[in-house]
Amino acid sequence: MNTASVTRALPIRGPRSSRWRTLPSSLLALPLLTALLALLTLVAGCGKKEALPQASAPEVTVMTVTPRDTPVEFEFTAQTESSREVQIRARVDGFLDRRTYVEGSLVKTGQTMFLMDPKPFEAALQTAKGQLAQQQARYQVAKANLARVQPLVAQNALSKKDLDDAVGNEAQAAAAVIAARGEVDTAQLNLSYTTIKSPLTGLSSFARQQDGSYVTATQSGLLTTVYQLNPMWVNFSISENEMLKYRDQIAAGHLRFPANNDFSVSLVLADGSTYSEHGTIDFANPAFSTETGTFLVRAVFDNPKAALRPGQFVRARVGGAIRPNAILVPQRAVLQGSKSHFLWVVDNESKGHQRVVEVGEWQGDDWFITDGLKPGERVVVDGAIRVSAGVPLKIVQRLPGEGGGAQPAGAQAGASATASAAPVSGASASE
């Protein structure tokens, strides 16, 4: 059926007629055709591929690998010890009269610390002196008798036996005088031991015996302890494995000790502060401990202000060694893989390539790289987590060692997050 010839009666009222008239259906098909054309246009548009925005290159900071001689420090757990720790003991038995020092105070050499009851020892001294006087008198008699016997024997008025007896009696009397004089010296010495003095200048401990106590030299003779604070010793131990490792590194040329083992030692206290004075190693035990398998080393420090006290636990940092031609990279540049450590190396086209490396010890905020890097290569420091293999990178900042001059103006925002870490060098010295 031809739609153009078909008419449909519609109730349309004309402007000039009140009667209903008919309208062609072609006029009614125009809105339908318009909707169909719009739908076809939409379907055609959906068939075209929209252009996706290109991803921007990851922004990274890089540094150039530059081997150089790097000072290193070895850190050990250590403990302070008084260079002279003297126990003050009673050397005779008796009653303790009184303590004459203030516990915990600084005592001088020769200062009296304790007094014992001297009366028994004074009496013993008098007895010894009396015995000495008796022996001296007997000696005088024996000597006079010998003087009389000798000329009589020469005149054959007395026998040879009488002369021998006189000579023997005189010798015995002389020996008795010597023994009596020894008893007097012993009594005087014991009397002097009742006054107990400090043999050195140092810090005193608490009194272990109170006034009025009976002390004996063999059992309860310990009275107190005096610690010399200047200089102060610091003891630490090196394990056998560490000693062998250092020896192998020295043989391979990866480590060099100072001449004559002239190390410098610094201390880190319990609160993290660094002790103001530096020390030197003055003793190393020639043998390993059979109990711990460690090698004892001792350093000596000046302690003029008594800041160090015996028994403190500290960290000893031993400096003076050098790692020749060492390669250092910031720790944040090294990533941990499933089997090994790796980092990203940037080629001449500014593309990143993953490189497996062998890491050594930490040095401050840096890490020694023992294998896997060559001098002159560039490695990614900041932004390494955003790098993919073969993808071009946008270098926004070159850390010291790269020598690239000022950073681009557009990179300031990307570099602001690493501004505080920018001075890290590829081979910085130890802090």
Q: CATH homologous superfamily name of the largest domain?
A: Efflux pump adaptor protein, beta barrel domain
> What fold name goes in the CATH topology slot of the largest domain?
Elongation Factor Tu (Ef-tu), domain 3
**SSE run:** EEHEEEEEHHEEEEHEEEEEEEEEEEH
Q: What's the helical proportion of residues? A: 10-25%
> What is the strand tally?
22
Beta strand %? 35-45%
* Structural class by sheet pairing and helices: alpha+beta
Specify the CATH class of the largest domain.
Mainly Beta
Instruction: Using the CA coordinates, give the radius of gyration.
Output: 50 Å
Principal-axes geometry comes out as elongated
- Number of H- or I-type helical stretches: 5
Low-confidence runs: 1-23, 401-431
Mean pLDDT: 82
- CATH architecture group name of the largest domain: Beta Barrel
Tag the structure with descriptive keywords.
431 residues, alpha+beta, conserved putative lor/sdh protein from methanococcus maripaludis s2 fold, Elongation Factor Tu (Ef-tu), domain 3, OB fold (Dihydrolipoamide Acetyltransferase, E2P), 4 domains, 35% strand, disordered N terminus, Toluene efflux pump periplasmic linker protein TtgA, MdtA-like_b-barrel, MdtA-like_BSH, RND_pump_MFP
